[in-house]
Design goal:
Length: about 525
């Protein structure tokens, strides 16, 4: 997303935090009541003690990596030191260091030492349940796996082992140091992604002890989490660690170019007054000082930045090794040819970021047309006409929101699906249209992140966002089982949904999730063709 098209990173994340349920605890404590003795599982690093809550075994705050601090700062993650005493796994571990904001739960702790994961399972046995690994959103800058929308108890009750992961973010996860720092830092711009790879390796080694099948792992994420899934699909070290993928409102076709990322990394060390290659000096800098230096570094490097979805600032970058190139630029990597993909967006994504803006409320036809020219300079007239045809009666502000929704989220998802279709594994496409949330005076409609609690079945945890009534429950009754079915079989079809064909270039059949879901061929096809997708 270009700077012009988006809110600031801080505003983006404040909005996304609301959507993730950080404001709403709904009276649901982290532990809902305990059934019998606390379960203990011996992992390959040491024993952990979880909790049994309403028939589900929950293990929170399980360490999967050594603290990435001191000399390990900005370097690939390392396994933790083994332990012999039982470690308690009753509370979520620290989330990545980030701006706390007013929207994070009061219990959430932020730290540079953040390599923790959580597991929910219905049984500690040998049943080999499908595994789903959740990657939270937050534009690579903020977010946490332990927020109420992401609780995994509903997946566990439906026969899935749910794993959610914290990892390094922002400057700590994605600072690419220049070549002068030597080979140990060649992939420092991917440290946070390599954290996730280490977590997937932990899953492969340990999940059978939690009742899961290491040979049936689905990775899924939304927004920045969807971009993380996209990147994993292009990362060589992740090969073989997952078998299915779901991208929700976060298709990532490319990553930050290495030249820009190294320029930004050099700007950071210059801001910190750390000389190239001085590992000891870098290790000695206070974490808050590093965190607070991000803006100055980004400003210094802004002349080298590229435009695109989450490819500027402290975000993952191409290193030519772990990430050889953009994950879907020019196409999908051959090693994911057998990985089925479920991908989609919400109809009104950008209302979450723009609907409250006075500029949108006061938008004129001239302002909308200017936005179209900025977004698509060579085909603005065609795109503007297609948007008006697709949204009859829409105000100029609503048309601008629809334009930015298409540019930022929808068309990249279509493009990624098209590129994945060149491989034999199936692709399924969806769009989420439910728009009855009363939040923001009803202006959110089918906003970015609106589907999250429907996917997790946690709508009761986030009623502030989705609103009262049975609509959210009816949506969860359709979307959650589809995600479970995809994890189990690689096909999201369920008995309660209309027949959901695979996506292809001939018909482009797409599941439109709503109170009465339906399948539509090539939704908004005229707009897609006008944009060039």
């Amino acid at each position: 997303m270009t700077k012009k098209a988006r809110l600031s990173r801080r505003e983006w994340m404040t909005s996304a935090a609301v959507a993730s349920g950080a404001l709403i605890m709904s009276g649901r404590a982290l532990a809902a009541g305990t059934d019998g003795a606390a379960p203990i599982v011996q992992t390959n690093h040491g024993p952990v003690r979880g909790r049994t809550e309403d028939g589900v075994h929950a293990f929170r705050g399980v360490r999967y990596g050594a603290p990435p601090v001191g000399a390990l700062r900005f370097r690939p993650p390392q396994p933790p030191n083994p332990w012999t005493q039982v470690q308690d796994a009753g509370a979520f571990g620290s989330a990545a260091m980030q701006s706390p904001g007013p929207d994070a739960p009061k219990t959430e702790v932020h730290s540079e030492d953040c390599l923790f994961l959580n597991v929910w399972t219905a049984g500690l046995d040998a049943k080999k349940r499908p595994v789903m690994v959740w990657l939270h959103g937050g534009a690579f800058a903020e977010g946490a796996a332990g927020r109420p929308t992401y609780y995994g108890d509903h997946f566990a009750r439906d026969g899935v082992v749910l794993v959610s992961v914290n990892h390094r973010l922002n400057v700590f996860g994605f600072t690419q140091l220049p070549d002068s720092w030597g080979p140990a830092y060649k992939s420092s711009g991917l440290a946070g992604m390599l954290d996730i790879v280490l977590a997937l390796q932990w899953v492969k080694a340990n999940i059978a002890r939690f009742g899961g099948d290491p040979n049936n792992v689905t990775i899924f994420g939304e927004s920045g989490g969807g971009a993380k899934v996209s990147l994993l699909l292009g990362m060589a070290p992740a090969k073989g660690l997952f078998h299915r993928a779901i991208i929700q409102s976060g298709a990532g076709l490319d990553a930050a170019p290495r030249a820009y990322a190294q320029t930004l990394g050099g700007a950071l060390t210059e801001t910190l007054n750390v000389k190239p290659g001085d590992v000891a000096a870098l290790a000695a800098v206070d974490a808050k000082t590093i965190f607070d230096s991000q803006k100055a570094a980004i400003d210094k490097a802004k002349g080298a930045a590229s435009k695109g979805f989450l490819i500027d600032g402290f975000v993952p970058s191409i290193d030519g090794q772990a990430l050889p190139r953009g994950p879907f630029t020019p196409g999908a990597q051959p090693w994911i040819s057998d990985v089925p993909l479920l991908i989609g967006t919400n109809r009104d994504e950008m209302t979450l970021f723009l609907a409250a803006s006075p500029d949108i409320a006061n938008q004129t036809n001239e302002g909308f047309e200017k936005s179209a020219r900025e977004a698509y300079p060579t085909k603005a007239d065609q795109v503007a006409a297609a948007l008006r045809a697709a949204h009859p009666g829409a105000s100029p502000g609503e048309l601008t929101i629809a334009l930015q929704t298409a540019k930022t989220f929808w068309i990249d998802s279509v493009t990624l699906a098209e590129r994945k279709l060149k491989q034999p594994a199936p692709v399924w496409m969806y769009r989420m249209d439910w728009d009855q949330s009363p939040a923001l005076g009803g202006k959110l409609k089918a906003a970015h992140a609106m589907e999250l609690s429907f996917v997790f079945g946690t709508q009761e945890n986030i009623r502030y966002f989705v609103g009262p009534g049975d609509g959210p429950t009816r949506m969860a009754a359709q979307m959650h089982p589809a995600w479970v079915a995809f994890a189990k079989t690689g096909n999201p079809q369920t008995a309660t949904l209309p027949t959901w064909p695979r996506y292809d270039l001939a018909k482009r059949q797409t599941m439109i999730f709503n109170l009465d879901s339906r399948v539509e061929s090539d939704p908004q096809g005229d707009l897609r063709r006008a944009i060039g997708g």
